[in-house]
Specification:
The chain has 7 helices and 2 strands, in the order E-H-H-E-H-H-H-H-H. It is an all-alpha fold and about 170 residues long. It is elongated, with a radius of gyration of 25 Å.
Length: about 170
């Protein structure tokens, strides 16, 4: 059994657009319906992989241009890639984007809560600090919170940065 993913992740894994997968569903692509209205369908990557291979083979057989050795090699490479993804997930080197977003959201909420206590703590420890000084601290904290709240995650940029960090080490 492969990894259970949503259509967006499936699209990223296989390099096929989401609308194409929607079309493939009508052609028999295996999927599991969302549990309730509004929940997205999920897809087993191994089942999808097998379906895509059989679809490709049937198209080539119809065209009469199938190179069995080439197709076996392609299948072996694709299976190895799928296995690599599964192994990386088991080693906890990969995680679903939704989980990472949730973890980051929780961490940011906790950080924000601590930041909001700083002006009061500073006032208690430095009673001689003026109201203007405390207000300046509050403004800087709000500025930092706004920057964090509006941050966009560009995974490609992070991947390039991580790659350069590893190559330097």
């Amino acid at each position: 059994m492969g990894q259970s993913v949503n259509k967006k992740t499936l699209s990223e894994v296989f390099g096929i657009s989401e609308p194409t997968f929607t079309k493939y569903q009508k052609q028999g692509l295996p999927f599991m319906r969302g549990r309730s209205k509004g929940n997205s369908n999920t897809y087993d990557t191994e089942d999808v992989f097998r379906w895509l291979i059989s679809k490709e083979l049937s198209v080539k057989q119809e065209a009469g241009s199938i190179d069995t050795d080439q197709e076996r090699g392609r299948l072996a490479r694709a299976q190895a890639d799928a296995k690599e993804l599964d192994n990386a997930e088991r080693r906890q080197e990969l995680a679903p984007v939704e989980l990472l977003e949730w973890v980051l959201s929780k961490a940011c909420s906790q950080i924000s809560a601590v930041l909001e206590t700083i002006p009061l703590n500073v006032k208690r420890r430095a009673p001689q600090l003026s109201a203007n000084g405390i207000e300046l601290i509050k403004k800087e904290i709000v500025r930092c919170q706004n920057i964090a709240a509006s941050a966009e995650i560009n995974l490609d940029e992070f991947a390039e940065e991580a790659e350069s960090d590893y190559s330097e080490a």
